[in-house]
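Hey team,

Filing this mostly as a record. A colleague (T.K.) asked me to run one chain through the structure pipeline before their review meeting, and I want the input and output archived in the tracker in case anyone asks later how it was produced. No errors, nothing strange. Just documentation.

Input sequence:
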Amino acid sequence: MAFPPSDLAGLADFFRGPWRFARTIWEGGADPQAQAEGACEFSDGASARQLVYREQGALRMLPASAASRAIAFTRVFDYRFGEEDVEVLFADGERVGQPYQRYVLKANLLAPAADHICGPDCYNAAYTLEDHDRFTMETFISGPRKHTRVLTAYRRG
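Output structure:
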């Protein structure tokens, strides 16, 4: 497989399969407020140009202590690889089938094609393909009461 992928079909091939992730969450400051880790997989969906992303993990608020407990979580998203862009849809919860974000491939960067507006908040994310077995996703959420940065590092496996 060529790296970085030269088209969206190659990008789907890059993502397909199991991954491990580590996530750090900052809320308006230099010190992180939470960390999460877990496993995820991009698996073939019902259509030819679709991958379903499923993740499960555990979130810990910081600073971590012996008394702090992990909070289990799951998420599911539907990735649709079109001719020009990748559309990500919600695939769990009450917003199933609704658009979340849209991206365009630029070399090793999967860049946002538009902001996602949810109420008064704006969500914006970008993926950086590091090498054949690693990528990161960085999300920024801004709004009247949110100034959040989420950095997720993925490693194949």
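Quick notes for T.K.: The longest strand covers residues 32-44. Residues 103 and 125 are 9 Å apart (CA to CA).
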